[in-house]
Amino acid sequence: MISEECKISVVIPTYNEGKFIAKMIESLLSQDIKQERLEVLIVDGNSEDETREIVEQYAEKHPWIQLLNNPYKVVPHAMNIGIKASSGEVIVRMDAHSRYPNNYISTLVNTLCERNVDNVGGAWKTVPGADTDLALAIALATSHPFGIGNAEYRLESEEIQEVDTVPYGCYPRDLFDRIGYYDEDLVRNQDDELNARLIAKGGKILLIPSLKITYSARPEWGKMMKMFYQYGFYKPLVNKKLGHAATWRQFIPPIFVAMIILGVLLCMYSKVFLPFFGLGALIYFAGAYLFSFNIMLKEKNALLILLLPITFFLIHLSYGWGYLRGVVQFMILGKNKTMVSSSR
Description:
Layout: E1 8-14, H1 21-29, E2 38-44, H2 51-61, E3 65-69, H3 75-85, E4 90-93, E5 98-99, H4 104-115, E6 119-127, H5 133-141, H6 145-148, E7 161-162, E8 170-172, H7 175-179, H8 190-200, E9 205-216, H9 221-242, H10 252-269, H11 274-299, H12 304-332
Parallel strand pairs: 1-2, 1-4, 2-3, 6-9
Antiparallel strand pairs: 4-8, 5-9, 7-9
C-alpha cells in the first residue's frame, strides 16, 4: 500500500526539447506538493540543441532534478533507464512537449492511493504548436472524433472513468516488478502496450478528465504525418506481442487506405469501377467537410474549411499506410526491430 507521504519519481524522456523543456520544468516547480517528496529524472537522448544545458542550469539550483543519459534516444529506453534509477514509491511519466496544472502530480498520486488502481492519467487539451492557421487545423483535427476515433483522453468528458490507456500515466513503482518494463522494441505505442499488459494482468487504469494536460500538437503536416505513420507502423507489433488487438478503432485507417489502394487498382483494370470509387470518395469528403464546416463556424475561421478536410485525410492516410507497412514488417516478415527515428 502506497503511503500518503510517499516519495514520487518523475521520469521525463527528452530529445531536442529546447523549445519546451524550460516551461516543463517551471510547471514542476509550481506543483502544489512538497519538493522534498519529488525526484525528477530527465533522461535525455544526447540532444543536439540546448536541452541539456537548460536542464543542467535548473539542476544546479534544484538538486532533486537529475539529468540522465539515454544513448538509445527513444522513449522506452529512456523510461526504463529512469525507472531503474528511481527511488520513489510512485512513478509519474511526464512529457516535455506538454504543460501541466499545478495540482497535476498531487491529483494523480492521491487518486492512485484512494482508488487502489495501477495507473491514472489526465486528459489532453490539444493546442496549436505554432501561431498559424495550419497549426490550429492540426490541433483541432487531432482532438476531434472524426480525426482520431474515440480515444477518451483526447476527447471531452467529465467523470472519472476506467479506460484502456491514458497519456503518460502514474504507476506504483512495484508494478514494473510485477509486469515488466517498457518494451524497447516500440518507438511508438509503448504506453499502449504496457497498459494492455497491465489490464491483461487484472490491473485497472483510470482517466481523470478534469485534470487537463496542455499538449502542443505538431505545427506542420509533415511532422504530423510522421508521428501518425509511426503510431500506425508500430501498432501491429503491439498486437503481435499482446496476442490480440488492444482496441477496435485502430483498424479503421488501414481499412480506409486498403480500400483506396484496391479502388485505384480496380479503376485501372476497368472504368466500370470508377463510379463506385468516386462515390466512396464523395461520402468520405462530404463527412470531412461537414465536420469541418461545424468547426469553422465554432472557431470563426474561414480557412479551416480548406485546411481541416486535408488534415483529416492526411491523419487517416499516414496512420493507415503505417499500419499496413507494419503488418508486412512484423506480421508477414516476422521482424521485431525498430526502423524509424523518434525525432520530432
